[in-house]
């Protein structure tokens, strides 16, 4: 299922008691702030969710797939998203232990 901005607004309205109009405004403001921050050349870090990181790509040679003529692909700035470990953990829960195999103890990197 794809979650849309409209779905987020309805979720906010249902769970927090906002009107749908207020919730839509909150969702729009949230994404506008992310957009503006990226447009200013800054990365966006959402703790427990992930990071939106700007990358500069240099110009490079390319080829028109239709005519096979060489073309130059211009330099550009792109946005990449890197999911946090927490989000990855929610998307990929650990598999159940195999029959007869004791679980491997997990050590936190913070306890060292």
Keywords for this structure?
112 residues; alpha+beta; three-stranded antiparallel β-sheet; two-stranded antiparallel sheet
Show the helix and strand layout.
Blueprint: H1 5-16, H2 20-39, E1 44-46, E2 50-57, E3 60-63, E4 70-73, E5 76-83, H3 85-91
Antiparallel strand pairs: 1-2, 2-5, 3-4
Helix pairs in contact: 1-2
Query: Structural class per helix/strand content?
Result: alpha+beta
How large a portion of the residues is in β-strands, by DSSP E?
15-25%
Radius of gyration: 22 Å
Coarse shape: extended
Q: Element order, helices and strands?
A: HHEEEEEH
Mean pLDDT: 90
Report the helical percentage: 25-40%
Return residue spans where pLDDT drops below 50 for at least 5 consecutive residues: none
- Spatial ordering of strands, largest sheet: 1-2-5
Question: For the terminal residues, how far apart are their CA atoms?
Answer: 40 Å
Could you explain the architecture of this structure?
With 112 residues, the chain is an alpha+beta fold. The chain contains three helices and five strands. The protein has helices spanning 5-16, 20-39, 85-91, and strands at residues 44-46, 50-57, 60-63, 70-73, 76-83. The strands form two sheets. It has a three-stranded antiparallel sheet with strand order 1-2-5. α1 crosses α2 (20-39).
Short description:
3% of the residues are buried. The chain contains 3 helices and 5 strands; from the N terminus they run ααβββββα.
